[in-house]
Every structure is written in structure tokens, then in C-alpha cells.
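Entry 14. Structure prediction run on the chain below.
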Amino acid sequence: MTAFGALFDRVRETSPLVHCISNLVSANDCANIVLAAGASPIMADDPEEVEEITALSRALCLSLGTPNPRKAEAMVKAGCTAARLGLPVVFDPVGVGASQFRRSIAAEVLREVPVTVLRCNASELQALSGLAQVSRGVDAGKTLPPEALRPLAEQFAAQHHCVAAVTGAEDIVTDGKTTHILRNGTPLLRRVTGAGCMLSVLTAAFVGANPDRPLAAAAAAVCAMGLCGETAAARLTGEEGTGTLRMYLIDAVSNLTGEQLDQGENDELYC
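Output returned:
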């Protein structure tokens, strides 16, 4: 078990500026959850300014959600700037299995940008790995069982020299050599639009504050999101649903402490 609390405390202490090239559907929630964690978001996706914005930041998050050619250009420009400056990059290949357009952008990002953390769901990992899978838009469709996903995530991480953070019934966070299996969370988060996008920007905040420990930082972010999902779900009353859960989730991140994260984590470590 890794002590994640100190990594979260570092986010609060340093308040890293996170450049988010975000999903239009979830941009507001992404900005709010970064703020709730104690970091600072800046949302910019025009190719004319992304290099300057990235240069001001401590971390970059690239989301493939709601893609278009200008956004694709901006992602590569920002990613190359981050690489030149030694800044961590989180890439979220939202719905990459849904269209050839998304797959081509993802391939370009992975080819041109040294990604620090790939943050995806199981079906997105399968699509990036070239395995046949059934896509349900941006949601995870039919996927491999957990015992098959772990070696696939480890293989991808080793091949691309990155951390792969794959969320599902069990969350897998690996650098190809060391693997965290995390079991915090609630199935209700699947019913909240943008929950995955929020996790990706939260991961960028954690890695931006702890750039020398990308594996542990990514695992801590995944654990924090899952734990806060549990806290939010536990607050729901009989008449409250996923709209309220979304609000309670951001509240839970805002109120989370490093000590609570250490006490609540459900993490198995494999080396």
C-alpha cells in the first residue's frame, strides 16, 4: 500500500496551474474539480495561444472529447511545448473507438507527444491497442475481463514509456513494471457525464504537483476520485440522484484531506 495522502497534500501546498484542453461537455466541471483539489485550472484550446499557456503551467491535460481539426492541432502544439519544457502530460482518449477521426488524432498525439499518463477506460485501451471492441460512443462497451486488462495495460505502458491509468470495476494504474489495483469508487459515477474527464484533470493536478512520482501520483488521483465518489454516493437520500451526486462529488474533493485519503484507500501493489 502506498501512502497517497502526502501526494494530495502537495497539490494543496503548491496549487499547480493545470492547462486543460478539455471536453466541451465537461469543461466547467473539470475546472471546478481542479479548484476543489487545491490546484488552479486554465482552459485554452486555440492553436494561437496554447503554447504560451502551456509554458505558464505545471501540467497539461489533453482530452479527445468533442474533437475538431483546430483542437487536434492545439493538442499537438501544447503537447510538444510541454515536452520541451519537461512538463507532465495527461492524455484522455475519450471515445477513441467511436470513429476513425478520433483514432487518427490519438495516434498523432501518441506519436508526437511524450505522454506521461494515459487516462482511459477499458474499451479505450483496447481500441488504442488495436483490439476489436464494441464501442458505445464515449462509454466503455464490451471489454476484456480484469485479468486480461492488467497485462494489456502493462504492455501499453511499457511500450509507450508512460503510466497507464485504466478505470473500471477495478482500476489499474501501471508503468509496466509496478502496478496498482485500486478498488475504491461507486458504479453511480458511470451515470455522471464527464466523470472520466474530471478524473483526468485531477490526475494532471496530482502529477503536476508530484512530477518526480508520476505512477504514485496517478494512482493517488484515481484513488481520491473513487473515495470521493463513495463519499458522495453515501450522502444521497431517496429523492436525490446523479445530478446531486455530481455536486456532492466536487464537495467531497473540496473537503478531502490527505489523512482521509490514506485511511480510505483500497490499493494492492504488484511489482
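The first strand starts at residue 17 and ends at 21.
Filed with the rest of this week's runs.
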